[in-house]
Design brief:
Number of strands: 13
Number of helices: 4
Shape: globular
Radius of gyration: 17 Å
Helix content: 10-25%
Distance between the termini: 26 Å
Order of helices and strands: HHEEHEEEEEEEEEEHE
Largest sheet: 7 strands, antiparallel
Length: 191
């Protein structure tokens, strides 16, 4: 058949297709060297003027970015990767490894206090201001191939530590909304 030469000429493509790293996860893909591959949500429009105080998502890098790679801007928080390190507003959060899912929850209170949870653990407490836009990615070319997996979840409250650990423990494949607003690729493309 016609696909045999493709498989022979691209064995890595075949291996990736058979790899269960992603399984049946809904994915947002951010290809390397592609500009304007960002996703922006206007919180007022998407959520009927609901305050959004917490954001939950999973990310995965195939390669380390040689320069800064914006992952998400939530209120005034800029969450990004540089090399094998993760930062929020230029404050170190954690290092990370390739080809592994990581969970992030960002919270912002109406008193301009923010918290950063990385794989269920509180890593940073910083000052932040409220805005009405969330942007994953950036307009600049992506510095590496990376993904958002599962569902992007928006919460009207500041999540408590037990809820954060529960979301983390359910894993990246959990796309059930649990009474929140969840955004998946199927909201954009009929899968």
């Amino acid at each position: 058949p016609h696909h045999v030469p493709l498989i022979c000429e691209n064995p890595r493509l075949f291996a990736d297709a058979c790899d269960d790293t992603f399984g049946l996860l809904p994915l947002f893909e951010f290809p390397k060297d592609i500009s304007n591959s960002h996703i922006t949500f206007n919180l007022n429009k998407e959520n009927e003027n609901m305050n959004v105080n917490s954001l939950s998502f999973w990310f995965f890098f195939r390669e380390f970015p040689a320069s800064s790679q914006m992952i998400v801007t939530f209120h005034s928080l800029s969450f990004f990767a540089t090399g094998d390190d993760i930062y929020v507003n230029d404050q170190f959060v954690s290092d990370y490894r390739l080809n592994r899912w990581y969970h992030v929850i960002l919270t912002v209170t109406d008193k301009n206090k923010a918290q950063v949870y990385f794989d269920g653990v509180l890593k940073n407490q910083i000052t932040a201001t409220i805005s009405q836009v969330v942007t994953f990615g950036a307009s600049q070319a992506n510095a590496a191939l990376w993904f958002i997996g599962g569902a992007i979840r928006l919460f009207p409250t500041v999540l408590k530590e037990d809820a954060i650990k529960g979301i983390f423990n359910r894993g990246v494949s959990d796309t059930i909304t649990h009474g929140t607003i969840a955004i998946t690729p199927s909201d954009y493309v009929d899968l």
